[in-house]
Amino acid sequence: MSNRIFGLLLAASILLCVGAPLMIAWAPYESTMGLVQKIFYFHVPSWMIMFLSVFICGVASMFVIFRRSYRADRIALAAAELAVVFGLIGLVTGPLWARKAWGVWWQWDARLTSALVLWTIFIAYLLLRRYGGPGSERLSAAVALFGMANVPFVYWSVNVWRTVHPKTTVVPSLGPGMREAFWWCAGAFLCVYLLFLVLRIRLEEKRLELESLYLTSEDQYKNYG
Amino acid sequence: MTLLDFDCVTLSNVSHAYGRRYALKQVSLTCKSGEILGVFGPNGAGKSTFLTLLSTLLDPSSGEIRYGEVAPGVPGAALRARIGLLGHDLHLYPELSARENLEFFARLYGVNDLYQTVDSALKRSGIVDRGHEPISKFSRGMRQRVAIERALMHRPRLVLLDEPFTGLDDVAMRSLSVRLRELRLDGVIIVIATHDLDFSAGFIDRAAILKSGKLVTIETAANKLRSSYEAHIYGGA
Amino acid sequence: MLKAPESHLSTPGFFRVVCLMVMKDLAVETRSKEIVYTTIFFAVSCMLVFAFGFVQEGREIDHVAAGILWVTVTFAGTLALGRTFERERQNETLRAILIAPVDRPAIYVGKFVVLLVLMAAVEVIVVPLVSLMFQVPIFEHSILLVLLLITGTAGFLAVGTLFAAMLVRVKSRGVLLPVVLYPMTIPVIIAGVRGTALLFQPEADLAMAQAWIGMLVFFDTVFITLALWVFEPLMKE
């Protein structure tokens, strides 16, 4: 990962994150919900990033399974962790909004529920990696791949399941002045995500380097000790 | 169906790591046809990993294994048809009878003269009259004899045995060693991982001694095997 | 230099291997009957627990029958999956099959078919029991109900067989199987429960139930294909 790209990402993230509160403050109030609606600028981008991360993890996992690529494995792990993190942001902001807007924490909203299911799939990925012992990289890659393939099914089934009950959607449509703020925030989230992804991949690379050094030194110690 | 064949198996700098730990480090070795190679070492030395790598069920983390001139990647199934493996757990279904076990595996391998092969396997393992009883009723030694025949039914070129003498009485051990010598005359490559130094010294051609995943020495003189083993394993070489 | 051996093997094709695996597993299961009995008993106990949980003063809370049915099938299925592969692991027979020169995906299909048969046996007991305990009609739209059960169970097992097979060497496999399986099969559960509930209600919504069956067929196709694709590289240790 080139240092220049890293520097660029860092600069972009700072710029966008500093600008975001300003953009949000400047955006007009939504007619019915007032200030509460502004949580939307965090909520929806987090979901978008979670789906992006799921996709990246799924694709990287294909390389892990078929090409045995270590590089792809590091990317898959970082992407899975970030999918869980950004999913968590979405899962926390959603109920906060719902509580303020409709007085109930959880409404079994179709999109929220689908995201929750996808989120649990990737928690399972992390649990398998952690507790599956050596060689669990490929096994969890299968989970990620299946998880990615499952996205349309989860979405469709939860959606149809929900239409039987009265629907209250958490995401209203975007008014005119809000569009700029929304895309600014989406951009900010994207830059932050890519920054974290690069950082996490680097961290994993360093960790593996450390482990192999550890192995070699252990080896030498045994020879001389 | 054309059969793959090879007259030697070569390991070049083969290492295998399980996560943080190296089970086998930089092992280089050639096994030739018509040779019985004994693999010795304390527990955790890497003997089982060595056999599993040779069986193609495991890929080395680094280094290469060649079968004749062929690397294992490409002709997967054709290569596996020429390998026979007998692990510590015998690979038999306890609910099925000896005959059913042998017939299942013979069919899986596609052995041509099925009933003939199964009959002679049963005869060799000395279980003809009890061939219809479920294997769970047999002693460990009897099951071992059936298991050995199962591994040899498809006439493999490379035979890998993990602790084949466990649970065998003297008679059975002797007949197994005779069987292995017969196979050697047919040009089969035999690799045995075992703890039993003294008995094996009697019929193996070479001994590879492993310690902590490393190949410390290859011994060819039978009378020097015990002393060599003790020097390398306990002498702290 | 050795002569190239005459071919004494005719390796069986894909469907032959599937048949061999299925016949073998059915033979093993009919002898011991362990998995069938314990799974059926477990399913019935599960239903009893739910009945006590959800039935108050002899009246069921509306529409729980479908949910109870599918949760029971899920739990029983997980048990059957775990037990089937545990049995292969105990005698290392899975290893012996993997080293045979067979098409690896055929192993997956063989296991899948056997588990489907096993779960069918369980459902034959559980579904009438549901009808008895919760007074729901099972004969009115029996064809659709059967289709729903088949496609739903197949979807669950398509993913489950792969995951159970790949977890066979993992230490915490008992708990990790449900952990990875349940979130993945939520669409199947939703479709199964909703479809069944629609068939159980007084004015059954046949069109919607058919839509759920359609989704399940699609799910099954996609995931069986994925599993076949991924099975071989995952089975290498």
What layout of secondary structure does this protein have?
The complex is a heterotrimer of chains A (225), B (237) and C (237).
Chain A (H helix, E strand, L loop, with lengths): L2 H24 L13 H28 L2 H33 L7 H22 L4 H28 L14 H47 L1
Chain B lengths: L7 E11 L2 E12 L2 E6 L6 H8 L7 E6 L8 H5 L2 E4 L11 H12 L4 H11 L15 H13 L5 E5 L7 H16 L3 E5 L3 H5 L4 E6 L2 E6 L5 H10 L3
Parallel strand pairs in B: 3-7, 3-8, 5-6, 6-7
Antiparallel strand pairs in B: 1-2, 1-4, 8-9
Helix pairs in contact in B: 3-4, 3-5
Chain C lengths: L13 H19 L1 H21 E2 L2 E2 L3 H27 L2 H7 L4 H31 L7 H25 L6 H12 L1 H15 L5 H30 L2
Antiparallel strand pairs in C: 1-2
Helix pairs in contact in C: 1-5, 2-3, 2-5, 3-5, 3-6, 3-8, 5-6, 5-9, 6-7, 6-8, 6-9, 8-9
How would you concisely characterize the structure shown here?
With 225 residues, chain A is an all-alpha fold. Chain A has helices at 3-26, 40-67, 70-102, 110-131, 136-163, 178-224.
Question: Describe it for me?
Answer:
With 225 residues, chain A is mainly α. Chain A contains six helices and no strands. Chain A has one domain (3-28, 37-165, 177-204): Four Helix Bundle (Hemerythrin (Met), subunit A), CATH 1.20.120. Helix content of chain A is 81%, strand content 0%. The radius of gyration of chain A is 21 Å and the shape is globular. Chain B has a six-stranded mixed sheet, sandwiched between helices. In chain B, strands 2-1-4 form a three-stranded antiparallel sheet, with helices on one face. Chain C has one domain (30-235). Chain C has nine helices and two strands, in the order ααββααααααα. A two-stranded antiparallel ribbon of chain C has the order 1-2. In chain C, helix 1 (14-32) crosses helix 5 and helix 5 (104-134) packs antiparallel against helix 9. Chain C is globular, with a radius of gyration of 20 Å. The two termini of chain C are 34 Å apart. Chains B and C meet through helix 2 and helix 3 of B and helix 1 and helix 4 of C.
Features:
heterotrimer; A: 225 residues; mainly alpha; Four Helix Bundle (Hemerythrin (Met), subunit A); 6 helices; B: 237 residues; alpha/beta; Rossmann fold; 2 domains; six-stranded mixed beta sheet; three-stranded antiparallel beta sheet; 8 helices; 26% strand
